[in-house]
Amino acid sequence: MSAHDRQSEVPGLDELQRRAAATSAPRREEGLVVCENLVRIYQTGGVEVQALQGLDLAVSEGEMIAVIGASGSGKSTLLGILSGQDVPTAGTAEVAGHDLLTMKRRARLGYRRTAVGFVWQQTARNLLPYLSAAENVMLPMTYTKVGRSGRRARAEELLDLLGVVHCRDRYPDELSGGEQQRVAIAVANANEPRVLFADEPTGELDTATSDEVFAALRRANKDLGVTVVVVTHDALVSEQVQRTVRIRNGRTSTEVLRRVATDEHGVEALSAEEYTVMDRHGRLQLPSEFTERLHMRKRVRLALEDDHIGVWPAPAVPRQDPEGESGTPDPLT
Ligand SMILES: Nc1ncnc2c1ncn2[C@@H]1O[C@H](COP(=O)(O)OP(=O)(O)OP(=O)(O)O)[C@@H](O)[C@H]1O
């Protein structure tokens, strides 16, 4: 090969930059809410609790999702971070372009007041007891430039939308649990937030009342366009959204996507499919029920097919005895 040929093989600066860009960090997730590799470590009495251990989540604008998971899996910690009440230890947490890791105190206060809304499980925690329903809804608007008549009109409109306009002049202790939560949803939407977070909003309610509250959340999502992230233990509630995200041990593990499918006879039916979450590096966790059944440990063999990837247990490797003769297979323990 001549010196000239070798020269022509050396890539130019543009080509090197292009290659570097292609191999650098994978593309960031897109969405109104984006968490990547999110970590929250609590330190209490010298003990470290890793509440979130590299959680990934992306929620698109206008979506309504349910977050489920066992007690202690990190659901409330996630909501606390996304609503600006708590600060993550590491990773990425962005909501509507706000970086929740680097946000300063003052900006955080503004964020909590106008960018997001929050509904707690405890009905009494959402409303001030000495204000009427309408006054509760008007209160957050005092942080904005909306005048008194504008505030009153917006409160009336929200209470009407959520089916509790008849409660406008009543105090919280004169409302049922379901009415209180619907007024709380109105309060959380007062300043036209981009995202509404609700932590077990139906946790203290019976089934019929929970349905009403959940219908109010759906109405807020549909009619006000607010993106909704709701944490729930209630399987019936989580089945009413298009996407349910399950958190296990501080990470997103699986997602159930629901959609209406039409068969060849034009009959519509709701289908639900469960997916394992893959992070942007291509990592995913195989369910232990699968790996145990097929005795998959340490290594697996992958094969790329036209439309899927096959995963097989690795064959047992014969163990080499000291004399150099092959002996019993090593079961890769
Ligand atoms: N302030 C805190 N200090 C120390 N550890 C905490 C704190 N808050 C939460 N934890 C721990 O972090 C882990 C996740 O808690 P988190 O409240 O987020 O779970 P959860 O899924 O919301 O549970 P639940 O469904 O019971 O409300 C748990 O082990 C919990 O004990």
From TrEMBL:
Residues 33-274 form the ABC transporter domain. PROSITE patterns: ABC_TRANSPORTER_2. InterPro entries: AAA+_ATPase (IPR003593), ABC_transporter-like_ATP-bd (IPR003439), ABC_transpr_LolD-like (IPR015854), MacB-like_ATP-bd (IPR017911), P-loop_NTPase (IPR027417). GO terms for cellular component: plasma membrane. CDD domains: ABC_MJ0796_LolCDE_FtsE (cd03255). Keywords: ATP-binding, Lipoprotein, Nucleotide-binding, Transport. SMART domains: AAA (SM00382). Pfam families: ABC_tran. It comes from the Bacteria. Coiled coil: none annotated. GO terms for molecular function: ATP binding; ATP hydrolysis activity; transmembrane transporter activity. Residues 1-22, 312-333 are annotated as: Disordered. PANTHER family: ABC TRANSPORTER RELATED, IMPORT ATP-BINDING PROTEIN. This is ABC-type lipoprotein export system, ATPase component. It comes from Actinacidiphila cocklensis. The lineage of its organism: Bacteria, Bacillati, Actinomycetota, Actinomycetes, Kitasatosporales.
